[in-house]
Write a structure and sequence with these properties.
alpha+beta; two-stranded antiparallel sheet; 13% strand
Length: 238
């Protein structure tokens, strides 16, 4: 271009020098990096993951940036975007919430079902895998693990049978119940609200999503609040 020669990455950096609020350029710059790379934009240095976060800080409705952020995470990672913390799988779910026709995000999310089943074949006492498996099912689905068939709710119960301190499974169990339901965990019986209280309010009192879910469950008039969050983490391929 003119008297200069530019790589793909340099073009994205140039775009951001001109307009640092260009969310697509941030997303594209992230895509151009490997997981170990960093790139300098202005006075800052950014990783692949940080580029996608920057894109979403500018435009939280960018489904491709959510999908790419999910790809950049490992199964154990969480990342902060705005006021929320997101796992790999939650990034894919955000992408699909914004654009249900995003085939890449559907594919990445779909891998989580087979990954969780494989994890449970290897270790049927993996509480996180049971929780993840439940989160990947619809309320009408059942899935075969070993010699048993499990519903969405039964996967969460299994997760809590193995690890009663699994706060995500408590939250998800609450989401799966109606206001009139109760669920038996160990020797106790729990309502929807009590699951949320057991969840983050006892284990992690700083989690805003559980507070929000508890608030929604206390609404006496049943107004149409935003949907509850199902929280889960699962390994996805890069």
């Amino acid at each position: 271009v003119g008297t200069g020669s530019f790589t793909e990455q340099e073009c994205h950096v140039k775009a951001l020098e001109i307009d640092p609020t260009d969310s697509q350029a941030w997303n594209n710059l992230g895509v151009s990096l490997s997981s170990k790379d960093t790139v300098t934009v202005g006075t800052g240095s950014f990783t692949e993951q940080e580029c996608h976060v920057k894109a979403l800080e500018i435009d939280p409705t960018d489904s491709q940036a959510w999908n790419n952020l999910g790809v950049s995470l490992t199964s154990k990672d969480t990342v902060t975007v705005g006021t929320g913390n997101f796992t790999k799988q939650e990034c894919y779910l955000k992408a699909l919430e914004i654009d249900p026709t995003d085939s890449q995000a559907w594919n990445n999310l779909g891998v989580s079902l087979s990954s969780n089943l494989k994890a449970l074949e290897i270790d049927s006492t993996n509480s996180k895998a049971w929780n993840n498996l439940g989160a990947s099912l619809t309320p009408k689905d059942t899935v075969t693990v070993g010699t048993g068939n499990f519903t969405k709710q039964e996967c969460y119960l299994k997760a809590l049978e193995i690890d009663p301190t699994n706060s995500r499974a408590w939250n998800n169990l609450g989401v799966s119940l109606t206001s009139k339901d109760t669920a038996t965990v160990g020797t106790g019986s729990f309502t929807k609200q009590e699951c949320y209280v057991k969840s983050y309010l006892e284990i992690d009192p700083t989690d805003s999503q559980a507070w929000n879910n508890l608030g929604v469950s206390l609404s006496s008039k049943g107004h149409g609040y935003g949907g509850h969050w199902e929280l889960h983490r699962a390994r996805m391929p890069r």
